[in-house]
Amino acid sequence: MIAPMCEQFVARAAVPFRLDELWPLAERMERYGIAGFGWGVTWLGEDGTLHEHRDTRAFRDDPALDEVGRNETRAVLLHLRRPSRLSTLQLPDTQPFVDPAGRFAFSHNGELERWQGARAAYRDQDRIRGRADSEVGQRWL
Questions:
Q1: Closest CA to 18 of 65, 59, 55, 54
Q2: 6 near 35, Cβ under 8 Å?
Q3: Is the model more confident about 104 or about 91?
Q4: What is the pLDDT averaged over residues 62-75?
Q5: Rounded to 5 degrees, what are φ and ψ at 68?
């Protein structure tokens, strides 16, 4: 069996661009791919900090698209969800995950192996919120 996979991309440029310049690509990826179970985007702000927006609705259904799209950046990570386990359809499981210290963003496509032991340890340390294996991977980094 082939596990469901998310759709994602990174874009970088020498000069700032508006996020909504990428919306047509994201729309096509969601429509022709197998995503549509939430989405998220992390971008580098002019101030050098990471900003994020995540939603459990499909990209095309998110009412904040126009507002988010007005942001400018030189680097972006966009993730369209198709979770391996439908039990993870909640905001804490929606990617990309931003490092609590704001150093990096992480998204993952597929399933990680042997993540259960780390999940228990991170949960006991109050370092995770969701149920997705990707959040465990992000905390491991």
A1: 65
A2: yes
A3: 104
A4: 98
A5: -65, -40
CA distance 55 to 75: 20
Dihedral of alpha carbons 122, 80, 56, 104, sign: positive
8: CB partners within 8 A, 6+ apart: 77, 78, 79, 80, 95, 107, 109
Q: Which letter does DSSP use for residue 102 in this model? A: S
Q: Give me the pLDDT at residue 43, please.
A: 98
- Lowest-pLDDT choice from 34-43, 73-82, 92-101, 113-122: 113-122
Dihedral sign, CA of 17, 41, 79, 128? positive
Both tokens of residue 133?
């294996």
Query: Packing angle between helix 133-140 and helix 116-124, nearest 10 degrees?
Result: 70
- pTM comes to 0.78
